[in-house]
């Protein structure tokens, strides 16, 4: 049974059709590359999965059970985490406190409540070790590379041990060395059984880590096939419309 199953997902904004009846499945321990040109519908589809938008029509199933999220908090509670392209990190805080932002560990002493910084730093260190990242819990985010920032954002998703991690352009605007670090984080997520949807314009990244690629064009799914059965040339043709469907 797929961990995620979408059937006939459509979304309209007035007279504009952003998505037109998209079917998609995602298995545990699978990385799905989601590709398409600007305006193809990728962000709309991911926002529906993450609970930021509701579909106009269609159904979504999580572990076989039909779900409909009214807000992102409901999707997170169900096991879906989204890492936005801007990461939403606080530059003036250490990595560990960013990992626990909004989910702080608190201890009580009598009637008083205190942040348990020791517990948060220790748990963050464990998460970075699990991700095989060199990021250190006490380092300020403002001093970190793009790859280290991604590690902080991905570690934050691991707190709740989600079923699905949605990554929006995680390798955009970072160096080649940092790209390899982020791709390593994605491989590590897959190895621990997490399902990943990777939105990316970078063909080499998708072909490096994805098991399968789905292509959207003008709100329609025009391809959904294993990476081993396609090529960068074919995917480029599908994105641009030079190839109608595959």
TrEMBL record:
The lineage of its organism: Bacteria, Pseudomonadati, Pseudomonadota, Alphaproteobacteria, Rhodobacterales. InterPro entries: AAA+_ATPase, ABC_carbohydrate_import_ATPase, ABC_transporter-like_ATP-bd, P-loop_NTPase. Coiled coil: none annotated. CDD domains: ABC_Carb_Monos_I. Residues 4-243 form the ABC transporter domain. SMART domains: AAA. GO terms for molecular function: ATP binding; ATP hydrolysis activity. This is ATP-binding cassette domain-containing protein. It comes from the Bacteria. Keywords: ATP-binding, Nucleotide-binding. Pfam families: ABC_tran (PF00005).
